[in-house]
Amino acid sequence: MNCETLDWAILDRLRAGFLGGATAIGPYWQSHADLAHYDATYAERIGWKWDAVLHELIRRHWRPRTRSILDWGCGSGVAGRRVLSFFGADKFDSLHVWDHSPLAREFAAERAHTEFATLAVAPFADTGQPVGLLVVSHVLNELPPEALAQLLGLVARAEAVLWVEPGNHAVSRQLITIRETLTSSFTIVAPCPHQGACGLLAAGNERHWCHFFAAPPPGVQNDSDWVRFGHRAGVDLRSQAYAYLVLEKKPASTPLPDNVSRIVGRAEHFKGFARILSCEAAGVSSLELQKRADTDLFNILKKDSSYPLYRWTRDDRGRITAAEQV
Ligand SMILES: C[S@@+](CC[C@H](N)C(=O)[O-])C[C@H]1O[C@@H](n2cnc3c(N)ncnc32)[C@H](O)[C@@H]1O
Asked: Can you tell me whether residue 210 is helix, strand or coil?
């Protein structure tokens, strides 16, 4: 990314649209340059969230069982390309891209074709057939009810779904609502460490939401172009909040072991202890980790809560007495 060559008139207009809800009035990509500037900047940040999700899946040995990808609401196509890079383009036969903007469809197809020359890449035409791996990224808050219904129709026909959204309260809660409708036909591969009802829907948890933080790749925070971009755009590049859902048609290939917990959001550190919101089959609960119980983990969580899965031993006051990474 070269900050000198960025067109700020384009980037400011796009960002104002994303933040101000102008995206609801229809396709907003005006030119190939819009998509190119978005792809180099905001989409690249979204790519860091995909990196976090895909790293977790690779670490857990999860692989898609299908050879076709549909990137729906593709924009410049960053999500589909990330998925191809992580799992390997040779593991797929085709990438289809869909966006209600024809410019976006063209751009995403062209970029993917350039990067993965041997892959069949084409705009999506819905023939009613099963959808392989459905990839969805940062579209929820732009969809009117009929477009959301269309997307959920594709979800129902998908073999697996990788869905990443911004990590704010409203969008995360929307994704949870969607999750609840899908548990009978899909295994929830992530983020949930269980297949039951979402514990954040329990009374008393209304203020919480399911979100995580992705770090940028090493070097970005010292890269003068990215630093200038962050200042000019008013975005904090240190960690990108995201919400996500990974689904696989039942039966799933790699169910999680029992009694596994995941930290929601970030640990909060105080003198001598940290407080975490832990999600597990029994529900979502606030737990305390005393520094003296596990100093290493206490320090790790200060920097990074992103290691996804733990098995806690705890006392009856909600204090963690031992922790094992799963
Ligand atoms: C914020 S952009 C995200 C683009 C890309 N998925 C990414 O993660 O960078 C949202 C995308 O959704 C597309 N979109 C919005 N409403 C849509 C609809 N009803 N049908 C298809 N695409 C839609 C927009 O054109 C835009 O490309």
From this structure: coil
The residue from 204, 223, 249 where one domain ends is: 249
Residue 107 identity: F
Q: Is residue 256 part of a domain?
A: no
Q: Please indicate, yes or no, if residue 186 is contained in any of the structural domains.
A: yes
Band the pLDDT of 277: cuts 50, 70, 90. very high
> What is the atom index within ligand 1 of the atom nearest the CA of 77?
5
Q: Whose CA is nearest to atom 4 of ligand 1?
A: 75
Do 224 and 85 share a domain, yes or no?
Answer: yes
Q: Which of 190, 266, 229 is nearest to 45 (CA)?
A: 229
User: Structurally, how many domains does the chain consist of?
Assistant: 2
Domain range for 197: 3-249
Which DSSP symbol is given to 24? G
Q: What are phi and psi of 277, to 5 degrees?
A: -100, 115
- Is 7 part of any domain? yes
Residue of 34, 100, 155 best suited for mutating to test ligand 1, as the one with most atoms within 8 Å of CB: 100
Is 79 a pocket residue for ligand 1 (Cβ < 6 Å)? yes
Which residue's CA is the nearest one to ligand 1's atom 12? 73
Band of the pLDDT at 254, cuts 50, 70, 90?
low
| pTM for the full predicted model | 0.96
Structural domain ending residue among the three candidates 210, 226, 249: 249
Task: Note the pLDDT of residue 326.
Answer: 87
- Give residue-wise pLDDT tens across range 124-150: 999 999 999 999 999 999 999 999 999
